[in-house]
Amino acid sequence: MLRFIKGNLTTIDGIEIYPIISLVVFVVFFVGLFWWVFTADKKYIKEMGNQPLNDDK
Q1: 22-45 burial, b for 16+ CB within 10 Å, e for fewer?
Q2: 9 near 15, Cβ under 8 Å?
Q3: How far apart are CA 20 and CA 29, in angstroms?
Q4: How far, in whole angstroms, is CA 36 from its chain's centroid?
Q5: Centroid of chain to Cα 45
Q6: DSSP string of 4-57, one letter each residue
Q7: Where do the domains of the chain lie?
Q8: Is the separation of the CB atoms in 45 and 51 below 8 Å?
Q9: How many angstroms separate the first and last alpha carbons of the chain?
Q10: Which contiguous run of DSSP H or E holds residue 3?
Q11: pTM for the full model?
Q12: pLDDT of residue 57
């Protein structure tokens, strides 16, 4: 099955840019996520972590 897909994809001009773009998007997303986690307000994170335990609606 993979043989047929690979054969079709190698005939498309410029197809090699898509894996590079997806890798860049992946890396940028997770670097941004790590940056947000390390710079986020600890009070906000604690409040959101305790939110499921609060019964006041």
Answers
A1: eeeeeeeeeeeeeeeeeeeeeeee
A2: yes
A3: 14
A4: 13
A5: 20
A6: HHHHHHTTSTTTTHHHHHHHHHHHHHHHHHHHHHHHS-HHHHHHHHHGGG----
A7: 16-51
A8: no
A9: 54
A10: helix 2-9
A11: 0.62
A12: 60
Structure tokens of 9? 């994809």
Structural tokens at position 29: 């997303």
- The pLDDT tens digits for 1-19 are 667 777 777 788 888 899 8
Angstrom CA distances, 21 to 6, 28, 38, 47, 52, stand at 19, 11, 26, 36, 38
**Contacts for 15 with CB less than 8 Å, ≥ 6 apart:** 9
Retrieve residue 25's tokens: 């998007």
